[in-house]
Structure to design on (452 residues):
């Protein structure tokens, strides 16, 4: 009887200690989380702005771009399964450009996430890859940081191009009979990015007025 | 902790019990991130931080941890401290975090952390446990850096690619010039196994020679009776 009593007591005591450790270390984690949150949010915002600066020069707009966004639901044209955001750049209150989050679903190793900026004149001002799993050293030249040609990265060829220069039927990699270069040995990555950029530019032109008219922070 | 035991810990961590060469623990992150010197050494340094703080925490609390639930408590402590390190890196070393961010949570799954907590920190005082964590971690750092260097050199023909993310102003060294076609297997996962195998073979050769030399010098003093011990 006394042995059982001891066993029960030991179990309760051990469980109590486990709970105590859990509470103490959870408190430690949540305190750190609260303490570091402002700094983390600030750097996330800074990172987003840095990315947008690469696709759209700051001189092209004068509004608070990140606050002037529209949330999208599932949008197959942009490859968005779970929705995404579009940021609207305005100059003196006039529509200037759209910055779209785009996904190329058909990369060599799955989805390639992109940011594409399209001016009101339908001209693509820049494209950047934000996340991808393409083969290192082979397909990852779509990311200019990994591109070995630093002076003229592959992704730079979309800057300044519109459907007036390259029609939709020519907006493909050269292998597919289009106008855009690719690196031999890794066509699939380039094809996925090129086609996604064409779809994004097409979507931005078709939906331009509705996108600019939607209320800030609203959903489309 | 005196100088003797400090040197003992350092020698153990850096060479004799090296996590990557001898204990062969934590191979998953080793093989995953050793595609370049900078990636590899950075993850190694983050592991040093986690190992030092978790060894310190467990050694300080070791008298309050019941033996029966020590493993769950250890895992809880390691996971919580890794989360703290992860958040702190994100908040205060953001550029470095962009490089390392995805690897830091991986440290929780690195069994070398739990192994040192269980084998050393649970039985020793906080100071020598912290030293053990740092030295074991540094042993991992140098191995990772060498492994990353071999793979990067073979795969890309460069060294220290990406260093500008940590030290702005420095740039990668192109060893074989810009026309090097790249030996892709260096960068791909199998390259990690080949390179690690070469390093382990090299280390075994060095160890075997050292043991032979030691046996040779001891032979006149200690005859046959000592032979099995030195072979083991």
């Amino acid at each position: 009887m006394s042995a059982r009593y001891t066993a029960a007591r030991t179990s309760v005591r051990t469980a109590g200690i486990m709970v105590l450790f859990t509470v103490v270390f959870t408190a430690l984690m949540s305190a750190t989380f609260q303490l570091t949150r402002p700094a983390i949010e600030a750097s996330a915002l800074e990172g987003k702005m840095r990315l947008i600066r690469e696709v759209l020069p700051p001189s092209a707009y004068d509004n608070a771009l990140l606050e002037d966004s529209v949330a999208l639901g599932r949008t197959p044209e942009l490859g968005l399964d779970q929705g995404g955001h579009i940021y609207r750049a305005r100059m003196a209150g006039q529509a200037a450009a759209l910055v779209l989050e785009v996904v190329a679903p058909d990369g060599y190793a799955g989805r390639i996430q992109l940011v594409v900026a399209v001016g009101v004149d339908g001209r693509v001002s820049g494209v950047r890859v934000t996340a991808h799993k393409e083969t290192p050293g082979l397909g990852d030249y779509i990311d200019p940081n990994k591109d070995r040609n630093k002076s003229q990265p592959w992704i730079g060829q979309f800057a300044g191009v519109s459907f007036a220069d390259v029609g939709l039927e020519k907006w493909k990699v050269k292998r597919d009979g289009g106008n855009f270069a690719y690196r031999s040995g890794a066509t699939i990555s380039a094809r996925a990015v090129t086609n996604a950029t064409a779809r994004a530019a097409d979507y931005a032109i078709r939906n331009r007025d509705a996108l600019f008219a939607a209320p800030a922070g609203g959903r489309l | 902790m005196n100088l003797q035991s400090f040197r003992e810990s350092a020698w153990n961590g850096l060479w004799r019990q090296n996590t990557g060469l001898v204990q062969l623990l934590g191979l998953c992150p080793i093989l995953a991130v050793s595609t370049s010197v900078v990636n590899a050494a950075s993850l190694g340094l983050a592991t040093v931080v986690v190992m030092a703080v978790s060894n310190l925490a467990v050694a300080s609390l070791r008298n309050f941890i019941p033996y029966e639930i020590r493993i769950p408590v250890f895992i809880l402590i390691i996971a919580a401290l890794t989360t703290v390190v992860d958040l702190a890196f994100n908040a205060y070393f953001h550029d470095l975090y962009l490089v390392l961010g995805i690897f830091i949570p991986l440290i929780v799954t690195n069994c070398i952390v739990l192994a040192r907590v269980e084998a050393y920190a649970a039985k020793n005082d906080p100071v020598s446990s912290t030293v053990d964590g740092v030295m074991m971690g540094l042993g991992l750092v140098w191995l990772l850096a060498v492994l990353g260097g071999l793979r990067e050199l073979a795969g890309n023909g460069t060294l220290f690619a990406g260093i500008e993310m940590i030290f702005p102003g420095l740039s990668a060294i192109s060893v074989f010039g810009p026309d090097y076609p790249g030996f892709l297997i260096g960068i791909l996962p199998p390259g990690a196994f080949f390179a690690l195998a070469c390093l382990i073979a090299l280390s075994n050769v060095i160890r075997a020679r050292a043991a032979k030399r030691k046996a040779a010098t001891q032979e006149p003093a200690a005859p046959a009776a000592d032979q099995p011990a030195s072979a083991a």
Observations:
- The radius of gyration of chain B is 20 Å.
- Residues 3-218 of chain B form one domain.
- Residues 79 and 108 of chain B are 6 Å apart (CA to CA).
